[in-house]
Design brief:
By secondary structure, the chain is an alpha+beta fold. The chain contains eleven helices and twelve strands. The protein folds into two domains: 42 residues, no CATH class; 252 residues, Sulfite Oxidase, Chain A, domain 2 (Alpha-Beta Complex). 21% of the residues lie in helices and 21% in strands. The longest helix is centred in the first third of the chain and has 17 residues.
Length: 312
Amino acid sequence: MLIKKATDIPSSEITSESLYRNRREFIKAASATLGAAAIGSILPAEVAAAASKYDTTEPKTPLANVTSYNNYYEFGTDKGDPVINAAGFKLRPWRITVSGMVKKPATYAIDDLLKGITMEDRIYRMRCVERWSMVIPWHGFPLATLINKLEPLPSAKFIKFQTVLDQDQMPEQRRPILHWPYTEGLRMDEAMNELTFMATGVYGKEGPPQNGAPIRLVTPWKYGFKGVKAIQKIEFTDKMPVSAWMEAAPNEYGFYATVNPNVDHPRWSQAMETRLTGGIFDQIRPIKTQMFNGYTQYVEKMYSTLDLRRNF
């Protein structure tokens, strides 16, 4: 069977998520003519609440691209590998171990850990460090909701995440591409920021595995390598975690990983990016990279005392 990469798929062949798109377009149209109060009276609560103030209004990357063009080294180093090699990856049962400076350390079944947490949809710009980007409708919940539920101690300054270590399901973990399991982290104020999101799926649905299911981190003002996937361990600590890419190439990848077009990667410029939206011209026309990926109003205060050229 021939499997195409996202860049090989003409826009005319991409099947849109029509229900998802129509729902949001209906909300926007109704909002313009009736007002928010009227919408609530004619739409189910779940639909009326679907639009988020954090959503970008830029064209969304089609589902076919979002789910077939992925960075996920546990399933292969080529961006077309994960959609093939993650097929059959088991999302249940799934357990997450919470440890460190927290009042509720334990190993939780994921469904128990997320019980009572309301899911929502947000459309974020996501930028990979390799000069390409997508606009993805994520399904999940704010990380702050989970942190508040777990009750970290005041001494916790950072939160550390680790991917599942499972060489049977993730064959590339048998090779020393990185130090496995994949490790990432955030400062606590970053973790509690209103943008920081734990995604359980895309386009209003849970999964798929190649996008990091059953649960992954999304920090839309940072580069994509911060988005640790298939999380199985969460630790609250007073020490800055050494992340996978920091350990592998400390001169190229720092802890903060904020999108900064004024700081080049040692091997390429970060000033421009190619947005994958499905349209032929959109895929080949570079656009200027925005500071903090366009989310300056939400995050710049966290870095007011840092030199983001040194703390990259």
